[in-house]
Amino acid sequence: MLKNNVLPNNTLIPIKVISTGVALPSEKIEALALDKKLNKPAGYSFKRSGILYRYYANEDLNQADLAAQAINDALVRSSINPQSIDLLISSCAIPVQALPYNAAHILKASMLPKTLTTFDINCSCVSFICALQVAAGLLNSGTYKRIAIVSADLASRGLDWQDEESSLIFGDGAACAIVEKGNGTSGILSCLFETYPEGIELCEIRAGGTRCNVKTAMNESDFLFHMQGKQLFKLASLLIESYLHRLLMQANLTLEDIVTVIPHQASHLSLEHMRKRLKISNDRLIDIYRFRGNQVAASIPSALHEAIITQRFKPDDPAMLIGTAAGLTLGGMILLP
Fold first, then answer.
1. Tens digit of each residue's pLDDT (9 = 90 or more) over 312-331
2. What is the pLDDT of residues 29-42, one digit of tens each?
3. Among 167, 179, 193, 244, whose CB has the most other CB atoms within 10 angstroms?
4. Structural domain boundaries enclosing 208
């Protein structure tokens, strides 16, 4: 809790999360089932990935439909009229298709007004944080009154099962947050994004744009996810502590002031690194990785939803959203709920 309930010496950017919701595919994949798929002994997948189970979409499930389910869940949980939403932001990492953009597909699948303003924001795994920052600016300008932000990714569609390191850690899912300006007591204390392009090839899907296509030549592997995990973890580990210092300095806070840490559920290793190196206790850290895996951009809003339903996202208790993303990008935000 903030000392003496006094805000830090910076300008709070008002924004209030009024509801969240999630959606998961129906197919629950146990770690033991992956052991059989990979012809490995029982317990191998859990030992390698740290995941007990996660969810995969079947071939019939549309990414936009899953996003629409998450939006509907957020609306129903707080009895929000769909007609009261005046902007939809899609903050997915993976596109439904090259054109048109994701938000158009999601709007079509949803129960929101069909002439709604929509657009996409994509910063890979930290897209939701960026969308929150943009939403805050739009709400405070008076352009919009109530905004739905949704992230939905079907990582399973791009898994390379020849690469154990990446194929074992991902899961599918969607999450939505509905936000408005609020009364000015909640909002953003700091927000920081930094991109280090020397890591651009450490995490990528090459096809789907102008780089690899039928005219420029491509192969099947260009459509699959590729990750150089050890190099990616090494680079992120070198950067994260100094980055975190800058993020906290913006808010005039210390890590001890942060009541709840809501991280990207990147991997078991990344969460353990955060626990130990930054000395964050289990009760302060939102960890749903064992039951969801890495849900790409849906990971952070899914963890935010978990924080809310377990009453770990409360007024006067600063919370930090933080993650790494392909790029390599570091993104974080300190929120006063």
1. 999 999 999 999 999 999 99
2. 999 999 998 899 99
3. 179
4. 187-336
160 and 204 housed in the same domain: no
Tell me: the pLDDT tens digits for 249-278? Answer: 999 999 999 999 999 999 999 999 889 888
Of 180, 202, 221, the residue at which a domain comes to its end is 180
Pair (23, 151) in one structural domain: yes
> Phi and psi dihedrals of 189, rounded to 5?
-90, -35
More confident residue, 101 or 209: 101
Token pair of 51 as six digits: 């995941």
State the pTM of this model: 0.96
Domains of the chain: total: 2
In a domain, 56, yes or no: yes
| Strand residues in the chain grouped as ranges (E) | 13-14, 16-23, 27-30, 53-56, 87-90, 117-120, 146-153, 173-180, 187-195, 203-204, 226-227, 260-263, 319-325, 329-336
Q: What is the pLDDT of residue 268?
A: 94
Q: Which residues pair with 125 in a beta bridge?
A: 123
Task: List for the chain the helix, strand, coil content (%; round to 5).
Answer: 35, 25, 40
